[in-house]
Amino acid sequence: MQEAKIKADFRVNERLVLQKTNTILRKVVVYAFLAVMAIVVLIPFYWMLNVSLQSHNEVFNSLSVSFFPKEFSPENYVKVFFYESRSQGSIAFPRYLLNTGIVAFFSTIFGTMFSILVAFALSRLNFKGREAIFTLLLATMMIPGEMMVISNYITVSRLGWVNQANYGSYLAMIVPFMVSIFHIYLLRQNFKQIPNELYYAAKVDGCRDWKYLWRVMVPMAKSSIITITILKLMGSWNAFVWPDIVAHEKYKLVTSWLRSSFTDAEAGIQRVLINYQMAATVIVTVPLLILFILFRKYIMSGVSRSGVKG
Amino acid sequence: MLENKKDYKAWLYIAIPLILLSVFTFYPLIKTILISFFSQYNSITDSFGNFFDLEAYKTIFRDKYFIKSLTNTLIIVFVSVPVSTVLALLIAVGLNSIKPLQKIFQTIFFIPYVTNTLAIGMVFGVMFSHPIIPGIAPEGLINTLFSTAIDWVGPTAVAKHWMLVVLIYSIWNGLPFKILVFIGGLQNISKQYYDAAKIDSATPKRVLTKITIPLLSPMISYILITSFIGAFKSYEAVLSVAGGTGRELHRDRWTAVAYVYDKIGIAGMDSNMVSYYSRGAAAAVVLFIIIMIFTAINLYASKKRVHY
């Protein structure tokens, strides 16, 4: 009797001891692995902040790299904010921000609006050719945008928008990407889930389609609409190659500013001021992080369904 | 009568978006294919010219920079996608098995997704920096940590070095989305499978290969398809890590997409009387065909292997 009791005690029973240590060991391994990966994920963010807060002296003249800013220089942020480069159209960050704001505003407003209208027509209204249009949209959703870029460039340049020092630059950046098939698709799936009975009930009450869309469907699909609005906003903020190709130098977006050369004009050699450059990356990254914190739920639900950035 | 009236109203809803899509999506798609075959396409007058042939395709396959850009793209695709998928799977399984700190870890792993590809790519460039002229600036983080003096991403960097950094960055960048999808999938797997495995005292490795991965296979196939497509289109990652300022990227470091973008805006023809636009269009079509073939293979394989 006494023997059995002792055996049941895990400190004595070898099998139990082994099992226990195994579980603990496994936990340690899992936590260690996750911790290492988390550090790998976070290092670039730390490095970005670290370099952005270093002084010119530290970035250039010291022989060893600083793992934390020794000459703490937050004024980099102010300087880079008003940094103008003659090779890049002599405009500073506020102007880039304004350009991005204008492009983001119009692409988001019109993009979301058009997505709602098309998704509504495709999910609720009956008309000839509806299935054909939907199939066509689905088929083109698979095709990479690079297929259209060349022809679109010819189209916008023939319209006279390319490199135009006027609102044409904005049009070239906004119009070709206004309608997103993916967003239409996403919203249509959501509209489809709203029961038909609601529609018929509204019809009986004499509610017109237009009113029904804005009074019933849009509020019910609110979370999807917020998701596509945020995806559109993030897309405009992150867009680089196309805007950089078509826009006039005074009409470029924040991403072009990010890629501009922050050079050391006073020194004889053209050296890139990496502390300014990193301050710029922080300025571009922070709004995205704020958006993420505020709309985490919506971004994550959109992301898990899209797979494609922006 | 009533039906017809409704038809016309429905078209009012979709008219403007449909016109925009026709002009900027459907029409350019066909036009790009046509330009790739009309090898003397003139971009200024927008006339196709008289030659309908395969010259543009022959030219790009003789162009060593196109072959180079295709090779670079394939390396990125076949290294970064498998590695980041396996890593993401391990992280997701790990995350799913712990209780304390789970939320914090999950948030950390998702942060890279909502950042700007260019911005963090430039940070990687700085971390791997190396002064071209000694003494002008200190070595970057990586060279300091490993006390090396390798030019990883600078102008004198050799292919294996800059490619390694690009791969690390692509993997880093691809992780969050995959982890998110895998965690969603893991949380949908019923607990009873794991309870049954526990009763049979199956080893964790066996649980992973016999339960978790088969039940996660729809997510894995979805991830593989979307990441393959994404990796085939990679350009900004290379540009930001191993490029100069603006869109300046050395020709040896081009990806297929970089090759296409490079041809935009160059009017006229090369020495073989093939217009640059036709070459760009042909490259775009080749990329498109490769992506389609891979997607088809993926779909076919997933039909055979995926367990729903």
CATH class of chain B: Mainly Alpha
One letter per element, helices H and strands E, the order of chain B comes to HHHHHHHHHHHH
Helix content of chain B: 55-70%
Oligomeric state of shown chains: heterodimer
CATH superfamily of the largest domain in chain A: MetI-like
Beta-strand level of the residues of chain B, as a percent range? under 5%
Q: What's the structural domain tally of chain A?
A: 2
> Which residues of chain B sit in consecutive blocks of at least 5 with pLDDT less than 50?
none
Tell me the major beta sheet of chain B.
Answer: none
Per the CATH scheme, the topology name of chain B is: MetI-like fold
Q: How would you describe the shape of chain A?
A: flat
Q: What is the topological layout?
A:
The complex is a heterodimer of chains A (310) and B (308).
Chain A: H1 2-8, H2 14-52, H3 56-60, H4 75-81, H5 93-123, H6 130-141, H7 146-158, H8 167-174, H9 181-192, H10 196-204, H11 209-220, H12 222-238, H13 241-246, H14 254-258, H15 274-306
Helix pairs in contact in A: 2-15, 4-15, 5-8, 5-9, 5-12, 12-15
Chain B: H1 2-37, H2 55-62, H3 64-97, H4 102-110, H5 117-127, H6 141-145, H7 159-188, H8 191-199, H9 204-232, H10 236-242, H11 256-262, H12 276-305
Helix pairs in contact in B: 1-12, 2-12, 3-7, 3-9, 3-11, 5-10, 7-9, 7-10, 9-12, 11-12
Write up what this structure looks like.
- The complex is a heterodimer of chains A (310) and B (308).
- With 310 residues, chain A is an all-alpha fold.
- Chain A has two domains: 2-52; 83-306, MetI-like (MetI-like fold).
- Chain A is built from 15 helices and no strands.
- In chain A, helix 4 packs across helix 15, helix 5 (93-123) packs across helix 9 and helix 5 runs antiparallel to helix 12 (222-238).
- The termini of chain A are far apart.
- The model of chain A has no long low-confidence stretch (mean pLDDT 86).
- With 308 residues, chain B is mostly helical.
- Chain B has a single domain (55-305), classed as Orthogonal Bundle (MetI-like fold).
- Chain B contains twelve helices and no strands.
- Chain B has helices at residues 2-37, 55-62, 64-97, 102-110, 117-127, 141-145, 159-188, 191-199, 204-232, 236-242, 256-262, 276-305.
- In chain B, helix 7 packs across helix 10.
- Classes of the chains: A mainly alpha (310), B mainly alpha (308).
- The interface between A and B is large, with 97 and 98 residues.
